[in-house]
Design brief:
This protein is α/β, with parallel strands linked by helices. It contains 14 helices and eleven strands. It is elongated and about 95 Å long. It starts with a helix and ends with a helix. The relative contact order is 0.08.
Length: 385
Amino acid sequence: MALILHNIYNQTKQKFKLQLIAGEGGLKNCMRWVYVSEDYTTSDFLHGGELIITTGVISGGSSDWLMHMLHRIIKQNACGLIINEGPYLNRNQISKEVLDFCNENNFPLFLMPWHIHIYDITRDYCDRIFTDTRQNEAICEAFLTLLNNETESSKAIDLLTDYGFSQEGLYYIAQLQSSSQINLIIKDLIQSFLFEYSVFMLEKNQSFILLFYSYQLNDVQQIIKKLQDLIKTRLSNCNIFSGISGQIKSLNMLSKGLEQAQSALSWYKSLNISIGCYDNMGFFRLLLEIKNREFLKNYVNEQLGAVIKYDKQHKSDFLQTLYLYLIHKGSIQEIAADSFFHRNTISYRLYLLRNKLGYKLDDSKVCFELLVAFQIKEFLNSIAW
């Protein structure tokens, strides 16, 4: 998963005598590293997620210096600041303005007594980061093995069960994809948000994969909706789309779940719908089970090839007229209203479709097969394989 500041604080506040004095709302922040800094001008070297420790040795006891540091490290997405309270900076020199600023920005500000050695806390936190990283890498590798349907699945399942994932259970997979490049800010937003939930996240092919265990579909949808709203609030220019799999009852079936989530993502994204479930794709779920895509393409060409070729040669749109005929069950009035052509024009087009292109439009079986071809064509154009 990820190291969340809330957990680290609760686990070590007694050991290191930590006191949270402001910014409690930011305890959901992810901690990626611990960094000792006495000069805020070096903040450009931060990558995001750092917990900063300072003694304020060059502050001169100035609250203004502290405010400058906070502005710089918050801008660089640091996760919190520990002041090693002592001869250079102490709580009496921390102004109400500083405390209000941290609270407004949900940026945790801690005090640590001078007698606590910075070496001890940095070593402890770095050990936790290394341990979490190794564990996270092992779990990610195991899940990717199952998602990619690789041969070493039994070892992957054994590892995941050791970490508390049940081999037989109720799983859902969601795939999230943003309109911008995947970056650390989005990743941290997701990990911080998931702090409240038992949901595992990994990255794959420039998207995020979320694995839900023992959740109902309605709960999965609500969590994804809240997450997307959070991302849009924080990153106003970022559009994010999500596809949710059907119910997966075994770790062995995760690759199938990922395929479903990817299909739902592609399908609903093509419709500009931000969240979509595989279970709501209806007829298109049948098409997903057909692995031979050439077969589907050939079927479309077999049914619609004549009119597609005619339109290409004559720069016309008889294909659209044919589709409207099928969905309006042959009503010339409704076809004319939907296409903005005169009824006489529609009648002439239908005459050509019947007599020149050979479509038996009075045969219900033929009409069904044609409509299926249109559905397959739409499906192939929308799903990314």
